[in-house]
Amino acid sequence: MSKDANRFFPILSIVTLIVLFWYGFSVVLNAPWAYDQAKRQSITLTLPELVNKTWSQKRPKLPTPHQVASEMWDTTVNQKISSKRSLVFHAWITFSETMLGFIMGMGLGIALAIAIVHNRATALSVMPWIITSQTIPILALAPMIIVGLGSAGFSGLLPIAIISMYLSFFPVVVGMVKGLKSPEQLEIDQMKTWSATGPQVLLKLRLPKSMPYLFTSLKLAMAASLVGAIVGELPSGGGGGLGFRMLSGSTFGNTLQIWSGLFSAAILAAALIAIIGFLQKIVLNKMSLEP
Amino acid sequence: MIYFYLALLFWIIAWGINVWISRQKSLKILNIIPPILFGASILLIWEATIFYFSVSPVILPPPSAIFFKLITSVPMLWADFVQTVIKGALSGYIIGCVSAIVVALIVDKFKFLERGLLPIGNFMAAMPIIGIAPILVMWYGYGWQSKSAVVTVMVFFPMLINTVQGMKMSDRIHRDLMLTYNASYIQTLLKLRLSTAMPFIFNGLKISTTLALIGAIVAEFFGSPVRGMGFRISTEAARFALDMVWAEITVAAIAGSFFYGSVVLLEKWFTFWHPSQRGRA
Question: What is the gyration radius of the CA atoms in chain A, in angstroms?
Answer without folding.
Answer: 25
